[in-house]
Amino acid sequence: MKKLAITLLFSVFLLPLSSVTVIAAGGAGVEHSGANINDTASLQRGAKWYANYCLGCHSLSYMRYNRMAEDLDLTEDMVMENLVFSDAKFAETMDIAMQPEQAMAWFGKTPPDLSLIGRSRGADWLYSYLRGFYRDENGAWNNTMLPNASMPHVLWQVQGIQTPVYRQETDASGFTHEVIDHFELTTPGIQSPAEFEETARDIAAFLDYTGEPAKLKRKGVGVWVILFLAFFTFIAYLLKAEYWRDVH
Ligand code: HEC
Hints:
This protein is of the alpha+beta class. It is built from ten helices and six strands; from the N terminus they run ααβααβαααββαββαα.
């Protein structure tokens, strides 16, 4: 019976491990982002980058400014002064002014709403995407995660310009192609490569958070639920021991 109690206790502790799912999208080149939605400072920086560099084109139509302020420990004044550049009100959703038809004419594609992008692509993909812009031989922007993306590299002044260095690769049928081996930063940006990694991580973390704001609470509550279950198992075991003492 002791064995059963131990197994029970273990399964309660191992439960959270088994529920950790790997969201990382497939395909080569997805790097580990290290994005952490419990790092509030990182989310705050991500929100600032997002408002300054992304919100012009990509709405977050499921996210309200006031909800974000509450989750990210920001005051109304901080949000209204630093993150709202339209005539939006504090209680409104993070929409954009651009008309879809205009966007279509400018980019040949409407920039998608990114409310749920953290869930569909995952933080690692987003991190890799933001770091994956490069300028090809013809001087055009391209991206390793989304080849021929119609989104311009909006952070190029921050990151600088990277150009690919190719290597030859022979496939199974004996054909050789050029594949990107690595990038070279040919024009430095405002940030160093290490700083830009952090910027990409912050934005990825922010989009991971906006994809599921409840994750912040869900994870916090989860810990207490597991602790309660462990405690309860212990109590139940003591009770069982008490009852069986008379039987033996
Ligand atoms: C000038 C407008 C513009 C700005 C600013 C912009 N984007 Fe985009 N973005 C686009 C367009 C257009 C696409 C569609 C690309 C495609 O599918 O070819 C896109 C696509 C994306 C996608 C891919 C969605 C998918 O999975 O298909 C992500 C992620 C994204 N943008 C994130 C960002 C982030 C983060 C920022 C801020 C750093 C940003 N964008 C700023 C125009 C913009």
